[in-house]
Amino acid sequence: MSYSVRKELSRKKRASKDSRPHVKEESNPSNSLASKLSQVVEVEEGDEFFLGPGLGCISPDSLLRLFSFQGYLTTGAFIGLQMLILGRRLLGVEENEKIHVVCETQNCLPDPFQVLAGATLGNKRLMLRDTGKILVTITRHTPPGELAPGVRIILDPAKTKRFDKLHAWYMDTEKLPHREVIQILREAGNTVYSYKHVKVPVTGKREKRVAICGTCGEPFIQTDGGDRYCSDCAKGK
Length: 237
Fold this sequence. Notes:
The protein is an alpha+beta fold. The protein has helices spanning 3-18, 29-37, 60-70, 75-91, 111-117, 157-160, 164-170, 178-188, 231-234; strands at 49-52, 56-58, 99-103, 126-128, 135-140, 147-155, 193-201, 210-212, 219-221. The chain is built from 9 helices and 9 strands.
């Protein structure tokens, strides 16, 4: 074989190799999330995650889903998680059963109920009543016209006093990292919460009626069937 032929074959071989698509090795997103989660809490792969005395454990996957939804694991979300587990236990509700929730703050607390209990603003099983309190009311899914058994749970300042750092965080007298406060909450478990059982009347679904606002001309859903103005325009009347 002549030199010129060998040279041409070598050139074609290199060209064929260079033309193959380069496939970038992608990292596993779940591994990346788990790595970030480990910066907030210690999670051992395959082990159940301990929430604290009286609360038991959840799967690392559940914790990862919450972390993924938030993009972090905040103290407020972890409190909501503990409240969710405590509420289920007090009501005897299984994990796959529907619940209805009223959260009295919109800061992080509602997230676990959306991610892990399927109670969302969209399906109307989550309501926000922003009183600024770290407090939730959880009720069983109950037919309209009946009283739904529920439980009202609050992070009790009289009980957080036994944990100096937690109480300082709660009263906003000291700024603490989420990792530190979450660890204290895990040590405290259900001992920092107070609750009382309640009965909540369940109303039927309202008839949907759409009207045109007499001021702005935009369509809106009437709340009592006789509104002439949307809520924004009614404020000025």
